[in-house]
Amino acid sequence: MTSVQSSSSQPGSIREILAPEPVAPVVALTEVPSFSVVIAAYQVADMIGDAIRSVLDQTVPALEVIVVDDGSPDDIESAVGLFGSRVTLLRREHRGAAATMNAGVEAASGDYVCFIGADDVFAPERLEALGDLAVVRPDIDVLTTDAWVSSHGQIFSRFYHDANPFETANQREAILERNFVFGHTAVRRARFVEVGGFDESIRWTSDWELWARLILAGSAIGLVNEPLATYRLHEATLSAKRLHQARGRLMTCGRILEHPSLTASERQRAERTADTIGERSRGERPRTRSSNAPVTPVHDHSTS
Length: 304
Known about the structure:
11 strands
């Protein structure tokens, strides 16, 4: 665990950072890198305004805010149009969340691309905190923060807690068992492009597969240990998503098992994770305990 001094909004305040130890000496940046924000949108015209407003109200502004309409049948254009030239709207045919976010990254020009769900919100200092982390740990490719989890407008937990901790000691091992990365990440754009972005064949939980691919390729994930976003649960859709998410996790495990860098023990670990997911999706009691089924709802950016 390390800490970093807040850059502007609260002079003298210290932010707690959780991240793996650097593999080589790190020299802090002299300037804060730029952040583009991408919002994938599908049937969210009635709620996307809160997400956009929270991004525009940051203490350190984003370089740009890009909304990608995934062929939504509702009036996304009018909802986004309320913000004028401060938000760029891209329109495309319906292809799912992974393809939509990839399109947003392709259009972005920031050093990092930060994702937010169209029905979620950022705290005003979130981009500032991510920038502080990027300055002191330029070796880290994926940045995130803790978040509040809410339902019916009431916050009931933090995303990270004792049963769902953020991993620092062995991220390579942990990502084979569970998605420990809160999905409103900021990813170094060049690294995102280098590894190929989100796998568009995985319609649900494609973020887990990307984090696994990045970590297995040598990237690290860093966390500002403050709840600087609110992840909103919508109970009406949770049961409908459960089966889709299980299928997405199984596809993710299959992609992970194809990775050429896996050791024999890592392959066994990933296979056990896939077995546990399969058993739970069929309503069976898992034969072995796994940390793979989250106590806190798994975040995904799926636009359906």
